[in-house]
Write a structure and sequence with these properties.
Keywords: CBS domain, Chloride, Ion transport, Membrane, Repeat, Transmembrane, Transmembrane helix, Transport. By secondary structure, the protein is mainly alpha-helical. Helices cover 56% and strands 7% of the residues. It contains 26 helices and twelve strands. The longest helix has 37 residues, at 2-38. The chain is elongated, with a radius of gyration of 29 Å.
C-alpha cells in the first residue's frame, strides 16, 4: 500500500505539473500578444483577446457537453458523495479523466473566471482509483496482480489519498491537502490512512515542485532541483509585518463580510443552477439543449474578455508612489527612467484596472497581496472590479466546462479585503514598518490576505485545512492568528444563512449525503420502523428468470432482501444488489430448468459478478424459454447483511448505517420477517422530517 501511495502521489504530481505548465503557456501567450496589439489599436486587441479565448474555450465546452458531461464543474461534490457511499456514474472513468484535463487546461488558460484547483482534486481522485484498481472497463483491461486492492475499502482510501495529493499539487500545500481530505472530502478516516495520505501528499508536492523548478512554459531553465520560493510558493508574500492585537478588529469585520458574501455566493450559485435547469427543461430537443449548454460558457467568455480589455479604458492612468515594478501600463505613457545609485527610478504611469484584469487571476491576486503598496489601487477601481468579477464568477461556476472556484474565491476576498485596507490607510494614514512598526499591520496587502481567507471560508466553511493552505500558499506565518479568527467568524456567519457550497451542490444534484450526525434532533424518540419504506420487494434464493427481469425493468430499487420459506414463514437470509442481478442475468449458462436444479461447479467468479458494466436488461432475453428458467442466487447474495428490528432506536439506526457505509438496511420483526427496508434517501434530513411529521400527525389524530 505504501508503494501504491507513492505511485499515486508521483502520478498526481506529474499531472499537476503538466496542467499548470499548459495553462501558463496558453494564458501568457494570450496576454503577451494582447499587450502588443493594444499599442496599435484597442479594437484589434479586443478582437484578438475574444478570438484567442474562444479558440480554446469552444473545444473545452464541446468535449464536456457532447463527450462526457460528468467531467463538468469541479467534481468535488461528486467525489464527496462517492466517498460517503453513493454510486455515481462515470466520475472515475478514463474518458472522464482525459476530458477533465483538456477542458480544464483550455478553460482556465482561455481566461474564464475559474481556477484549476477543483478539477485537480477530481483528477487526483481519478488517478487514485485508476492506479490502485488498475483496470479499465472501457478498454477491457483487468490484470490479476492488483486484485488485492479491488475492494470498496481500499478503493475508497486510495481515492481519498489521490484527492489530497491533488490539493497538494495544486497549491503546493502537502499538509493542507491531508487536512482537506480529512475535513471535507472523506467520510471514513483512520490514523493509518493519515500517515499513508501524508506520504502521498509529500511525494505529489515534491514531484510538482521538482519539475516546476526546471521548466517554465516547457522551457528548461537550468535550475533543476532548486526549490525557489517565487516558483514553489503560489502567492509569495515578501514583506513580513508584525501583527497587532488591534488587527483582530478588521479581521472580525472581514469575517462577517466573508460569511455574508460567501453565503450570497452559494445562494446565487444554486439559484442560477436551478434557473439553468428550468430553462433547459423547456427545450424539447436534447440536441438543442446541448447547444444551449455549449453556448453559455462562450457568452461568459466574450463578456469576460470584453471587460478585461475595454473596462480599463474607462479609468485614467496613475503614477502613485509605493507600487510594484510589474504593474500593467496598458496604454499609459512610458515615462522616463534613470539610475540613482543602486535604484532605478522612473515616472511611468500605469492603469489600476488593467493591473487586475489584463492579467491572469493568479497574477492579479499577487498584486492584491503585495505589502507596502498602500496607494497602488483606489477604492473605486476595487469596487468596480469586485462587482463585475463576483457576478461573472458566480455565473461561470456551474457551466459545462471543467473548472474550479478557488482562484475566484481568493480574488474576490482579496478585493474587498484590499478595500478595507485602503479605507484604513485613508483614515489612519500610512505607517511604514521601518518608522512605525506598531501600526505597520494596517497594510492593504495584509487585509487582502485576510479577506481572501474570509471569503474562502465563507463559501467552503473549511477551518483547519483552509488555515494551513493559506499559510502554505503565502509563506506568511505572521498573520496566522488573524486568519484563524476571520475564518471561524466567516464560517459561523455563513452557516447562519446557507449550507456550504459543496453541500448545497450535493442537494442540488440529488446526491444523498449523510452527515456524521443526523441533522434532525430527538431521533431517540422514534424507531427504525418509523423511517423505513414498507411493502418491500423481496426475492427468493431460487427465482424464475422472468420475474427477476420484470423486477429490474419495473423498479429502480438498488437492492432486494432475500427471504427463505420456513415453518415460521418467510425469514430474511440475505440481500442482493441490483448490479449483481444484472450481471447474473447476462450469463445464461447458470440458468436451470427447474427450481431444484443444481448449479454446483458453474458458479461465477466474484470478479465477473463485480464488473461495473452490463447490457440493457431489455436486450438480454431473446427467447421465451429463458424466461421460464430459474436462477439460483445462493452463491451470490450477501448472507451477512446487517438487519435491525423495527423497534430499534432511529438515532442509533442512523449511526450504524452511516458508520458502516451501508446502502440498504432490511428491517425485521421479532420473527425475522422482513417488514421494511431503509436506504440512504430514507435517512436524508428532509425525508426524515417529512416522515416523522406524518407520523406525529397520525398519532395526534388517533388521540
Amino acid at each position: 500500500r505504501w508503494v501504491m501511495m507513492g505511485l499515486i502521489g508521483f502520478s498526481v504530481g506529474i499531472v499537476g505539473f503538466l496542467l499548470h505548465q499548459l495553462i501558463d503557456l496558453i494564458s501568457d501567450t494570450k496576454w503577451f500578444y494582447a499587450t502588443q496589439y493594444l499599442q496599435d489599436s484597442l479594437a484589434i486587441a479586443w478582437v484578438f483577446a475574444v478570438g484567442y479565448s474562444l479558440i480554446f474555450l469552444i473545444p473545452a465546452a464541446a468535449i464536456v457537453v457532447w463527450l462526457r458531461p460528468s467531467a463538468g464543474g469541479s467534481g468535488i461534490p461528486e467525489l464527496i458523495g462517492f466517498l460517503n457511499g453513493t454510486i455515481i456514474r462515470h466520475i472515475f472513468n478514463i474518458r472522464t479523466m482525459v476530458v477533465k484535463f483538456i477542458s480544464c487546461v483550455f478553460a482556465v488558460g482561455s481566461g474564464m473566471p475559474v481556477g484549476p484547483e477543483g478539477p485537480m482534486i477530481h483528477l487526483g481522485g481519478l488517478i487514485g482509483a485508476g492506479l490502485s484498481q488498475f483496470k479499465s472497463d472501457s478498454f477491457g483491461i483487468r490484470p490479476t496482480y492488483f486484485q488485492r486492492f479491488r475492494n470498496s475499502e481500499d478503493r475508497r482510501n486510495f481515492i481519498s489519498a489521490g484527492a489530497a495529493a491533488g490539493v497538494s499539487s495544486a497549491f503546493g500545500a502537502p499538509v493542507g491537502g491531508l487536512l482537506f481530505s480529512m475535513e471535507e472530502v472523506s467520510s471514513f478516516w483512520n490514523m493509518k490512512l493519515s500517515w499513508q495520505t501524508f506520504f502521498c501528499c509529500m511525494i505529489s508536492t515534491f514531484t510538482t515542485d521538482l519539475f516546476n523548478s526546471a521548466f517554465n512554459g516547457f522551457t528548461y531553465t537550468g535550475s533543476f532541483g532548486l526549490f525557489a520560493t517565487e516558483t514553489n510558493i503560489m502567492f509569495q508574500v515578501d514583506t513580513d509585518l508584525a501583527t497587532n492585537i488591534l488587527a483582530f478588529i478588521p479581521s472580525a469585520i472581514l469575517g462577517c463580510i466573508g460569511g455574508i458574501l460567501g453565503a450570497l455566493f452559494t445562494f446565487l450559485n444554486v439559484k442560477i443552477a436551478r434557473l439553468r435547469r428550468r430553462l433547459l427543461s423547456k427545450i424539447k430537443s436534447q440536441q438543442n439543449q446541448k447547444v444551449v449548454r455549449f453556448l453559455e460558457p462562450c457568452i461568459i467568455m466574450i463578456l469576460t474578455a470584453t471587460v478585461s480589455v475595454l473596462l480599463p479604458a474607462g479609468f485614467t492612468c496613475t503614477n502613485a508612489p509605493r507600487t510594484e515594478p510589474d504593474v500593467e501600463r496598458y496604454v499609459c505613457p512610458v515615462g522616463l527612467s534613470f539610475i540613482d545609485g543602486n535604484k532605478t527610478l522612473n515616472n511611468q504611469s500605469y492603469n489600476e484596472a488593467a493591473t487586475l484584469l489584463f492579467v491572469t487571476g493568479e497574477q492579479a491576486i499577487k498584486h492584491l497581496f503585495s505589502n507596502g503598496t498602500h496607494r497602488q489601487f483606489q477604492v473605486g477601481v476595487l469596487i468596480t472590479v469586485l462587482v463585475i468579477y463576483y457576478v461573472l464568477a458566480c455565473w461561470a461556476a456551474g457551466t459545462s466546462i471543467s473548472s474550479g472556484l478557488v482562484v475566484p474565491m481568493l480574488f474576490i476576498g482579496a478585493l474587498y479585503g484590499r478595500i478595507v485596507g485602503q479605507l484604513m490607510v485613508t483614515w489612519f494614514g500610512i505607517h511604514p514598518p521601518e518608522t512605525d512598526p506598531y501600526y505597520a499591520w494596517m497594510d492593504p496587502g495584509a487585509m487582502a490576505l485576510i479577506g481572501a481567507a474570509s471569503f474562502f471560508g465563507g463559501v467552503s466553511r473549511l477551518t483547519m485545512s483552509l488555515t494551513v493552505i493559506m499559510v502554505e500558499i503565502t509563506n506568511d506565518i505572521s498573520f496566522l492568528l488573524p486568519m484563524m479568527s476571520t475564518i471561524m467568524i466567516s464560517k459561523w456567519v455563513g452557516d447562519y444563512f446557507t449550507h456550504p457550497l459543496y453541500h448545497s451542490l450535493l442537494e442540488f444534484k440529488c446526491i444523498p449525503f449523510l452527515d456524521s450526525e443526523p441533522v434532525v434532533l430527538n431521533l431517540e424518540l422514534y424507531c427504525a420502523g418509523d423511517a423505513m419504506t414498507k411493502n418491500t420487494v423481496v426475492v427468493h434464493p431460487v427465482e424464475k428468470v422472468g420475474r427477476l427481469c420484470k423486477l429490474l425493468l419495473s423498479t429502480t430499487h438498488g437492492g432486494f432482501p432475500v427471504i427463505k420459506d420456513t415453518s415460521q414463514g418467510p425469514v430474511l437470509c440475505g440481500l442482493i444488489t441490483r448490479l449483481e442481478l444484472c450481471m447474473l442475468l447476462q450469463h445464461n449458462e447458470i440458468f436451470v430448468d427447474s427450481p431444484d436444479g443444481s448449479t454446483a461447479g458453474q458458479a461465477l467468479h466474484y470478479q465477473t459478478v463485480g464488473k461495473e458494466t452490463y447490457k440493457r436488461i431489455e436486450n438480454i432475453f431473446k427467447h421465451e424459454t429463458e424466461r421460464e428458467q430459474y436462477l439460483d442466487l445462493s452463491p451470490y447474495y450477501n448472507q451477512s447483511c446487517v438487519s435491525l428490528p423495527e423497534t430499534f432506536s432511529l438515532h442509533r439506526t442512523y449511526i450504524i448505517f452511516r458508520t458502516l457505509g451501508l446502502r440498504h438496511l432490511p428491517v425485521v420483526d421479532d420473527h425475522n420477517h422482513v417488514v421494511g427496508i431503509i436506504t440512504r434517501k430514507d435517512l436524508m434530513g428532509f425525508k426524515l422530517e417529512e416522515t416523522l411529521h406524518t407520523k406525529l400527525t397520525e398519532n395526534s389524530s388517533d388521540v
